[in-house]
Amino acid sequence: MVAFSLLTIATLLGSALANPVPAPAASSDLEIPAVNASEVDKRQTTEGVYLLNCGTASNPNIYHPVVYCPDISNCGRIPSNNNLCYGPTWWETSTGACRFPTGVTFTWNIVANAQDYGDMDVVGRGNNGRPREFIIRKDRKGVLYTDGQGYQCRAIYVAI
């Protein structure tokens, strides 16, 4: 019986080695495997960038800050001036950019129909001049913070 089991295992192993599973085909720039939203937990300790819309319930688009978070788990408050710059009124652009007071420029490319995607789906890429590229996901539009004027700043996209 033991000999039969070893023979069976050896046969299966030999078959697997002789017929390996092919590698997946190369994907386009924005086709990244879907990730469960819980796996992209914002409480992880990593840097990130939020693209926000700030305003009131009746006018949610009064201004559009870009917020850099050295530790994205600690980004739920009004950012310091060095971690804040202002973006365009429309995020879904092929060449968006925002220059922070520190001199760092964050650039992004977001697909035109990004708001048609599901929450936390990949919708673009970003870069702040470092070798590491940011993956941009459509966020859930939750309030990240309320500014000093009482405007709620909602997360439209998050770049991690």
TrEMBL record:
Claim: Signal is one of the keywords in the record: yes
Signal peptide region: 1-18
Top-level taxonomic group: Eukaryota
UniProt keyword terms in alphabetical order: Signal
Protein name, per record: Uncharacterized protein
Protein's organism: Cercophora samala
